[in-house]
Specification:
By secondary structure, this protein is mostly helical. It has one domain. 50% of the residues lie in helices and 7% in strands. It contains 10 helices and 3 strands, in the order H-H-H-H-E-E-E-H-H-H-H-H-H. Strands 1-2-3 form a 3-stranded antiparallel β-sheet. Strand 2 and strand 3 form a beta hairpin. Helix 2 crosses helix 7. The protein is globular, with a radius of gyration of 17 Å.
Length: 210
């Protein structure tokens, strides 16, 4: 299990990008978690992940989605609305709940990547954060990738989901970040080689439960 990677407020101030990065984070309603430096409890995190179950299609309308997990030997069950209210992220009907994966959006993301890097023709697996020209956008991607999605620090590729979230913020389109996070937990569980870096979130959630 890797350490929980958090943003560095002092570094952002020194780089002169603090206000810009905070504005971008505000767009996805993630201020409280992105800038928190919470303790990590290995056993608590492993208990959470070993018991975590997520069914996005369960239920209807506002009560759609089923999330269950165990903490301190107690089982908790929630739906999408509960998690959204806890995180304080956008949840309206116009909020994206997953990556829009079609030819139109692929073209939009290619153009957007060209805007922020100058290279619209880069293949999906050849997009790297070091190519992003604007330091605020580069730091914003680091927060999404390493705090939100829990990627290892030496992994500098920009995934389709990360680029999609950056594009939505750029276009001022609301994102239901909760569903992206829940899906990422499933991915961590299903991929044995994926680094486990969600300890800070589990601690954040623990405070909500208590």
């Amino acid at each position: 299990m890797t350490l929980h990677i958090v943003s560095d407020s002092h570094a952002m101030v020194a780089l002169g990008i603090s206000e810009s990065v905070r504005f971008l984070i505000h767009q996805i309603g993630w201020e409280s978690f992105a800038f928190s430096n919470l303790p990590i409890y290995r056993n608590l995190t492993l208990e959470f992940l070993s018991s975590f179950k997520y069914d996005p299609g369960y239920g209807q309308h506002l009560r759609r989605g089923l999330v269950s997990f165990r903490l301190f030997s107690n089982t908790y069950t929630y739906n999408h609305r509960d998690i959204v209210e806890f995180l304080g992220v956008p949840s309206g009907l116009d909020a994206f709940t997953r990556v829009q994966d079609d030819s139109f959006m692929e073209g939009e993301l290619e153009r957007y990547w060209g805007i922020i890097t100058g290279n619209p023709n880069a293949a999906r697996n050849e997009r790297f954060s070091s190519e992003i020209h604007n330091p605020a956008f580069q730091y914003f991607h680091m927060i999404i990738a390493h705090t939100f999605f829990g990627k290892a620090m030496n992994n500098t590729t920009v995934s389709q989901a990360e680029l999609f979230m950056m594009f939505c913020v750029y276009q001022n389109r609301p994102i239901n970040a909760a569903t992206f996070l829940l899906t990422n937990f499933v991915r961590i569980i299903e991929e044995p080689t994926h680094p486990i870096s969600v300890g800070g979130f589990v601690t954040f959630r623990e405070g909500f439960l208590l």
